[in-house]
């Protein structure tokens, strides 16, 4: 991984005018993607993420701002130079856009028409199909393939011109979870083996969690939070980011079950429902045992989860802590001093207190 910027978007605005209405799809967005990144841009439908990413290869011309890709000012390029620049930016989409009447080999080789001899094109296509694990499907047609296989064909086709950047615009949204994982694993392998920079546009933080090293969260046309994956997951600053993370780590599902059964908890004045989140080395510490030894605080674990993000453990616990008020306060202070964040939960509400 280098610190060289391969994509630089600065103060990007995209405004649409339609039937007397003005829609600001992207507002003053700046984004830098470094060579070798797998950069996730996450947001709900309508957040502006797909519009933003189409600015990178000028499929969408911004209303204002600057776009520099691979050292080139994309907005100032002639049509001919833009076509050349676009060959280094591959794109894959939710709908695979394969040609039904052509074989898989012909679909993959289509971008190479007129660029290579027939024999060289044949060799290149064979190499690309091997790269995505579909060598045996060369003579099949798209209708014979599963959704995951079709997406692999789309990826192979996007790699035909040896791009340095691959943009994935909701490419896994139509796939089942197992197939999604295999496609994400493929993108991660291509990033590593080919030095490919990947920009992943998605509404699923789960996908970001699987492969990205950096993430930006978009809402209402703006980037509201950004950073490296571990920092975002361990210290989210915005409610929307926390919501995405809670869904990806299944905290939301756990909290829903706990809140639905709030009456059965029977919490006394000496008990408190809390969420503990801890990162890195602190995940190895015998926290529950230590709290009991030091403060006599008993912790009943209702939910526990450890994720490995960028080789860094990130743990979540939902526990009922029992003890005298001063002892509980001391235990919480101990946790905070150890770098463990604490969220006090209200079991009589469906929201985090």
What do these coordinates show?
This protein is an alpha/beta fold and 353 residues long. It has 2 domains: 5-247, P-loop containing nucleotide triphosphate hydrolases (Rossmann fold); 252-344, Alpha-Beta Plaits (2-Layer Sandwich), CATH 3.30.70.260. Helices cover 35% and strands 30% of the residues. A hairpin with a 2-residue loop joins strand 9 (214-219) and strand 10 (222-228). It has helices at residues 49-56, 79-86, 104-109, 118-131, 147-158, 177-194, 205-211, 229-234, 239-248, 251-260, 262-265, 287-295, 325-337; strands at residues 5-18, 21-34, 38-42, 64-69, 72-73, 89-93, 165-169, 197-202, 214-219, 222-228, 271-279, 298-309, 312-322, 341-344. Helix 5 packs parallel to helix 6 and helix 12 (287-295) crosses helix 13 (325-337). It contains 13 helices and 14 strands. The strands form 3 sheets. A 6-stranded mixed beta sheet has the order 6-7-8-3-9-10, with helices on both faces. The protein has a 4-stranded antiparallel beta sheet with strand order 2-1-4-5, covered by helices on one side. A 4-stranded antiparallel beta sheet has the order 12-13-11-14, sandwiched between helices.
């Amino acid at each position: 991984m280098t610190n060289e910027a391969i994509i630089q978007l600065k103060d990007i605005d995209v405004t649409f005018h339609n039937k007397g209405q003005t829609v600001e799809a992207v507002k003053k967005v700046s984004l830098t993607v470094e060579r070798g990144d797998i950069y996730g841009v996450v947001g709900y439908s309508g957040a502006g993420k797909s519009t933003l990413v189409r600015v990178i290869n000028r499929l969408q011309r911004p209303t204002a701002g600057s776009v520099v890709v691979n050292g080139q000012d994309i907005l100032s390029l002639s049509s001919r130079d833009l076509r050349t620049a676009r060959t280094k930016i591959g794109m894959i989409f939710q709908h695979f856009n394969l040609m039904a009447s052509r074989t898989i080999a012909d679909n993959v080789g289509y971008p190479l028409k007129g660029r290579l001899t027939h024999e060289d094109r044949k060799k290149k296509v064979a190499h690309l199909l091997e790269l995505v694990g579909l060598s045996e499907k060369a003579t099949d047609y798209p209708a014979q393939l599963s959704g995951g296989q079709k997406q692999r064909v789309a990826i192979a086709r996007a790699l035909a011109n040896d791009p340095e950047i691959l943009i994935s615009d909701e490419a896994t949204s139509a796939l089942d979870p197992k197939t999604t994982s295999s496609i994400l694993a493929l993108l991660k392998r291509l990033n590593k083996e080919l030095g490919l920079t990947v920009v992943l546009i998605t509404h699923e933080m789960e996908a970001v969690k699987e492969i990205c090293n950096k993430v930006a969260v978009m809402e209402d046309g703006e980037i509201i939070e950004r950073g490296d994956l571990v920092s975002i997951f361990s210290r989210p600053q915005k409610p929307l980011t926390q919501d995405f993370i809670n869904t990806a780590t299944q905290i939301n599902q756990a909290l829903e079950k706990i809140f639905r059964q709030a009456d059965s908890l029977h919490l006394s004045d000496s008990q408190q429902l809390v969420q503990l989140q801890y990162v890195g080395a602190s995940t190895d510490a015998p926290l529950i045992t230590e709290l009991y030894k030091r403060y006599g605080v008993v912790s009943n674990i209702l939910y526990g989860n450890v994720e490995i993000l960028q080789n860094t453990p990130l743990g979540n616990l939902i526990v009922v802590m029992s003890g005298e008020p001063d002892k509980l306060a001391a235990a919480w202070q101990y946790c905070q001093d150890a770098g463990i964040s604490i969220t006090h939960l209200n079991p009589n509400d469906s929201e985090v207190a």
